[in-house]
Fold:
Amino acid sequence: MKKHNFSAGPSILPQEVIKQAAAAVLNFNNSGLSLIEISHRSAPFVDVMDKARKLVLELMGLENKGYSAIFLQGGASLQFLMVPYNLLKVNGKATYLDTGTWASGAIKESKYVGTTEVLASSKDKGYNYIPKNFEIPTDADYFHCTSNNTIFGTQIKEFPVSPTLMVCDMSSDIFSRELDFSKFDLIYAGAQKNMGPAGTTLVVVKDEILGKSGRTIPSMLDYQIQIAKESMYNTPSVFAVYTSMLTLQWIKDMGGIAAIEKINNEKARILYAEIDSNPNFIGFAAKEDRSFMNVTFNLADESKKERFDSLWKAAGIEGLKGHRSVGGYRASIYNALPLESVQVLVDVMKQL
Amino acid sequence: MKKHNFSAGPSILPQEVIKQAAAAVLNFNNSGLSLIEISHRSAPFVDVMDKARKLVLELMGLENKGYSAIFLQGGASLQFLMVPYNLLKVNGKATYLDTGTWASGAIKESKYVGTTEVLASSKDKGYNYIPKNFEIPTDADYFHCTSNNTIFGTQIKEFPVSPTLMVCDMSSDIFSRELDFSKFDLIYAGAQKNMGPAGTTLVVVKDEILGKSGRTIPSMLDYQIQIAKESMYNTPSVFAVYTSMLTLQWIKDMGGIAAIEKINNEKARILYAEIDSNPNFIGFAAKEDRSFMNVTFNLADESKKERFDSLWKAAGIEGLKGHRSVGGYRASIYNALPLESVQVLVDVMKQL
Structure:
């Protein structure tokens, strides 16, 4: 039976990417050797890394605009630490928007490095909305936000205008919608949603903002070193970078972010329409802040849980269980999830 | 033509591991889903992680001896920072043995954290030997050494008796020889030599030594957090951990470290015998410190380079070029390299 993979991350990747990745593990570029047993400094892999970095800037419209793209390790969680290490000045101040678990994680690490101010939080309502109407102080070193909150299913639709550096964790909605990426000074994203397998993290940063913190930064945490070494300061996560490159190429071949966004909008539209029209379901997130990547909802009547669970499982649906901190259901409808899979879920919801 | 892969890392892995890894990328555990598109918190992947951690302790004879095994990201290079963060006490002192590029890298990061003393160095002779007869001060927080120096082809044959904590970077010879691993308090290794693909790093640590530094440690750099979360504090490098688990199982199936060591000894014996008996070649490392993983040598007569290079390339040999900082040749003969491949190289050397 065909599977419909709604996992929140690691999550569905394009079928052709999975096939190409598996083929490269057996025989990379017809070399007779596996992708995972060659030197990362060999010309064929350096080409992969260069291509991945170039595709990122191309898809974001950031080529020749003073940005670097690098592939690191450690997930977004290590970026929670690297961002303040590199951008929070000695005696300076970092500002954060608290929209959920990952934002809170970023705030925690920043506090380890220096003065950290939370400008607004939606914790009061279980993170089911995005705070608005807060002011970003002009004397802050940077403002940090999380564009999409995987666990709660909220997403920033309009980013605040920042008088200081703008830093964004886009782990769970990168490459899913058109944005003016040049309004951001630093963007980071763990690969394992829209970009590739777990094991690599993308950082896109405006070169001119670096080297100004007044701190001595350990080598592995220093963006300038990682940029100077072109993501090869030490051995990169070869398989994850290669598979990310394939996914980036797939996005480009599909017509780029604009084309993907159209499909994403349609997927979100039909799923939220069902939630709103079907009395069996209640959406979790505030309507105006609903994520187009992670659709969170609950049953109106918990006694129907067993029946609903057996219905979607019978339809080949996987990964629909909500995060343990929220409960209910979460349908993650990332770039690679076909519209057809959303239709299967909607049909199941109608059957309840 | 069959390839003989002497790459220094990422490097050769067992053929059956490569086949199983590729198969899992297509369809993991007959789930109909790829290994790289399922949740790392799903039962089948949690099993993989648990099995990998258990196999490590089992192969090292460290089960039920108060050690934890964890799989992290960032390579040995991030361990260069994590070790002092976790073990170097506030106002304490770390001690290091400088045996080459990677040891120097570790020393550099430790200096960032606190007082760091280099007890001995072989830099005076281009790192072609292992310093001996140095004393480890009893008031040091720990002593750090690098068991095998990939670039220079030297290896510690007898570890010093340490009056303080013993920390070892075993990136390039882990699981290659029997050692009394219980003499070490912390061992770390990037996966990409004897254990798996690039993208994950193994840390084996005695639990009781942690939490005593007096420092506040950022979450991602704190071994105690990573142990408590069983290597799942954040999304691990799924593919690299899975493939490492397969390789660890392969080592066990081969008869464990003792059985592998016998083959490794034979491979090193015939290759060094050829270097010593063939007037065309000169070994780089001091004889008593020769690595059984990375065999470094030069031509006696540089004018024979072109002929030698075409001979080994014609034989299907890959990755024989020495590191840029040493020159000459380096034959990396890790666990997965068959004896047959070493024989092919020796035959080529005889032809020169």
Summary: The longest strand of chain B covers residues 115-121.
